Amino acid sequence: MKISLKTGILEIESNETLEKLVDYGSRINKKRGFLFVSKVLGKHLPTKPSTMQETFQQLASLVPSSDEPTLFIGFAETATALGQGVFEEANLSNSFYIHSTRFQTSQKIFFSFFEEHCHAPSHIFYEPKDSKLKEMLGKIKRVVLVDDEVSTGNTASNLVNELKKVLPLVKEYYLLTILNWATTLYENFNYLSLYKGTFNFKPKEMDFETTVISEPQEVKDLDEIIPYNFGRYGVQKLDLDFSKYISLTQLHHSTTPKPPPHFNQYFKTNLPAPHLLIYT
Description:
By secondary structure, the protein is of the alpha/beta class. It is 21% helix and 28% strand.
């Protein structure tokens, strides 16, 4: 199957499973001029909560059951909710979930790494605030890395090598993804995915500005504007009163909100699928 995008031609094997999982978009990025736009994440395309939960359940079922202390890790920004959902559906008693963030807070940093090919390369992991989770962190024996897709596996391999320095007891690493395009096997982790395939992209010659680096500009701690913990500081149960942040009544009666002024600059939805044009 050949998909004509604004930035080139994406060649991929037609597959019913893949069609249920993604759409395709043009990406204004010199390193990677295309994007697999998930239909099941609820991130870029509207998605039924039931569809999202089904995806969480399918991914969780791939994780081998174990009583060993297990850490689930989600990656900002795309896989934070995905990681949380998978963690909850896995329902392992001796485990907890944490996700990376781009933002600086006053909490002590446990670990950080730099994802070179990404439009937002910095990942920060903070120490858990909860004393029970902090104690459990030192006893972790398994790590499940959760992301929406893996391209080569190289970043995951480098990350695992760094994690081994701060989590010396871990013997098993898993990279759990919706899509897996990797062709190289690594000795330090195992792949788990809903779809495994290959693709080829033939880029067009295009003249556009340098790739946008989406990194926060704040140099101060942001505790005041992000006081809550959705997983940034580790969670076992996300026990929050969402009515403090969201009015369901207001949402029900409101009209579609206007996008922020910068929205059209980076995310143009006026193009018919599969010509979604995303600047990253």
